[in-house]
Structures are given as C-alpha cells and as structure tokens.
Design a protein that fits this description.
There is one protein chain. Helix content is 45%, strand content 15%. The protein is of the alpha/beta class. The protein folds into 2 domains: 8-121 and 228-284, D-Maltodextrin-Binding Protein, domain 2; 124-218, 3-Layer(aba) Sandwich (D-Maltodextrin-Binding Protein, domain 2). The chain has a 5-stranded mixed sheet with strand order 7-6-8-5-9. A 3-stranded antiparallel sheet has the order 3-10-4. Strands 1-2 form a two-stranded parallel ribbon. The longest helix is centred in the first third of the chain and has 18 residues, at 30-47. 39% of the residues are buried.
Length: 287
C-alpha cells in the first residue's frame, strides 16, 4: 500500500514539491545592483520564495536578452532606455506618454510587464567641476556649447553608441570637444573628473557622488534627454505562476525619490557598505 509519508518523500526527492525559484537580474552598475538586491529581498520577505540573484549581468541589451530568454524573471529598467535603446523608437520628453508606450510595446512584443515606477528619474547628467562652472558662469548645456575652450569628455561605453547618447547630444547642442571622448567604466568617471583627466562627464542624475563632490550638473535646457523613470520589468509568466508577486513588487512603486536613490548609491560607492545591508536597511523603513 502506498503510504502518504512515502509519497511525500518521493515528491521531495524528485523536486516536485519545491516552489519555482525566482531569479532577479540587474545591469552592471551600482544603482542597478542596489535595486536588484532590493527586489530580491522584497520577494523573499513578502512571499517566502527562494530567490536567485544574477546581478551585474552586463549592459542593457544583454540583460534584456536574459529576461526574454527566461534566464531571469525580472529586473529594473528605465523608460528612456527601453524606448530608444531597446525598442528603437524616437525619444520623447513626455514622461507619462513614454511609460505607456513602453509598457504597451513590451507587452505586445514579448509578453513582458512594466510595473508602476519606483518614483525617481535617472536621466543622463552632464557633469563638470564646480570651479569650472563658477568661473565660466556655466549652468546649462547651451552655456557649455558657447564656451570658447573645448571640453575633454568622459563617458560610459553605452553613451557612445546609444541613440539617446553622444550623437544626439551633439546634434542638439554642438558642444566643442577635444579629440575623441574617453570611454570608461561608470565608476571611474568621477575620479577622472577630480583628477583633471576629463572636464565633463556623461554621468547619471542619481549618482551617489553628486551629493558630496563639488560638481555642477548642467541643465538640459533644450530637453534633449528623454525621461528615464525606473521600474520593474517582469515576465508575465512569472507573475502568473507566483500569486502575490505583483502586489509585493508594487509595494515599492512610488517609494524612491531622486534624493533617496542618490543616497543609497552613495552608501555603496562613497561609504563602501555592503549592498545587501543597504537594501535591507532601506526596506525596513518603507511602509
């Protein structure tokens, strides 16, 4: 006779009783890794589901491919990046329209869902030393374009090739540059700026170092850069197979301001605290 206890043992042995593990991914820079860890811990504490982490995967297209291929279930993305770099659609300055367009396109093309944004907009930020900005009365990108002395520009690798990156910036502003811009890991931009290796950095508006360094973020006075609202992108199949997953993730919607995200990034980049600790501390304070 087949006893219930034996049946349970057999189910456990074949793995049939185990819940499907969720995998959270992220791109390869601090903010993405912090957000990925926040998402993983939120799932673990709200659903009690085991979570695998594939953080620091790589750039946009690699991470998007991992999501579409089922290697990960979800990751944080930015609306402007999705619109221009993934969907190859023209940029727009209307944040609500961009979000709805991206949400509809992802759903139709790949059965991927965009949840409501975290609450911050990590647009590109063209950053110069504060002393240079004050000396030349430079506050906007148009001011930078009028400067007689050319700029030594530094940037991450994606900015050089993205449709919302260098080419479009120069078509809009015609900023005078010295030679070929230097490409480097994003974490090296601020040291290069401080050490006078570059004069301008194509950085991000929520970089932690912006809150502690004497630098100026040049205002995009011609509204070239599209909005980059951060939100969770998740496989519809993953939402369907995990009741409560969407509700758990949406508890994070609207909870992160630009200043809050900048502070989290600084905890990791400036104070060198462990990402898991920073994420756990922030989650403990949300309602």
């Amino acid at each position: 006779m087949f006893r219930p206890a034996i049946a349970l043992l057999l189910l456990a042995a074949c793995g049939c009783s185990r819940p499907h593990r969720l995998t959270v991914g992220s791109k390869n820079f601090t903010e993405q890794i912090v957000l990925g860890e926040i998402l993983a811990q939120q799932i673990e504490r709200r659903l009690g589901v085991p979570v695998d982490r594939k953080l620091d995967l790589g750039g946009t297209l690699l991470t998007q491919q991992a999501l579409r291929g089922g290697e990960i279930d979800l990751y944080p993305e930015y609306t402007g990046t999705a619109l221009t770099a993934v969907l190859k659609l023209p940029p727009s300055s209307d944040a609500a329209a961009v979000f709805e367009r991206v949400r509809a396109e992802y759903r139709q093309r790949w059965n991927l869902e965009w949840l409501d944004p975290f609450g911050f907009d990590n647009t590109f930020a063209m950053v110069v030393r504060g002393a240079d900005a004050r000396a030349g009365s430079i506050q906007t990108l148009s001011d930078a374009a009028r400067r007689k002395e050319a700029w030594r520009l530094g940037m991450g690798y994606e900015f050089l090739q993205r449709p919302d990156g260098l080419a479009g910036l120069q078509a809009t502003y015609h900023v005078p540059l010295i030679g070929t811009p230097k490409t480097m890991d994003l974490g090296l931009l601020y040291p290069a700026l401080e050490q006078n290796q570059i004069d301008m950095a194509a950085a991000n508006a929520t970089d932690g170092m912006l809150s502690v360094l004497d630098v100026t973020v040049l205002r995009d006075d011609r509204h070239y850069f599209p909005p980059y609202q951060a939100a969770v992108v998740v496989r519809a199949q993953s939402l369907a197979s995990h009741p409560g997953l969407q509700a758990a993730l949406e508890q994070l919607s609207g909870k992160l301001s630009d200043a809050a995200m900048r502070s989290l990034n600084y905890q990791v980049d400036g104070r060198h605290r462990p990402v898991a600790e920073v994420a756990r501390e922030w989650l403990a304070g949300i309602r």
